[in-house]
Amino acid sequence: MKNNILIPLIACAVALGFGSCKKGDTGPQGPAGRNGSSNVQSVSVTATNNNWVYNTTEDSYDVSFSVPAVTQSVLDGGTIQVFVGDGTSSQWYAIPSAYHNYQYNFDFQLGRVNIYVTLGNNTPPTNPGGVQFKIVVIPPASKSPNADGSNHEPVIATFTVS
Question: Is the pTM here over 0.90, yes or no?
Fold first, then answer.
């Protein structure tokens, strides 16, 4: 009989205890995380026939875009990614890449991204015309650290084929 009264009393106490809990006020937002993407910037640009400049030394067509997001901080520890579009903005191909015998490559400097087009058969290309590019600027604080916790770029080996 004692157990018959004790169990309902415990159940009531637990129910009342949970029912009287109140949710506190929401605290202030914390600082941005180390690997947040809020500082990553992306810009889509299109080169036209008139933008391309033929480089006789390299047998390439070159185009240069002003990208103010390429700051000294990005040069010191960030990275840039460039993609070439299919003309419909539905597919993007990472550069460096080869697409229909055209080879796309790029480099960057303070405030600029330069894109180069050559042909895979080492002949002079024709003017590439209207080509879409997406340029993504990733500042150092947004890069994911390597396994050792550093933000250094991986070492890329270069091989010479004889």
Answer: no
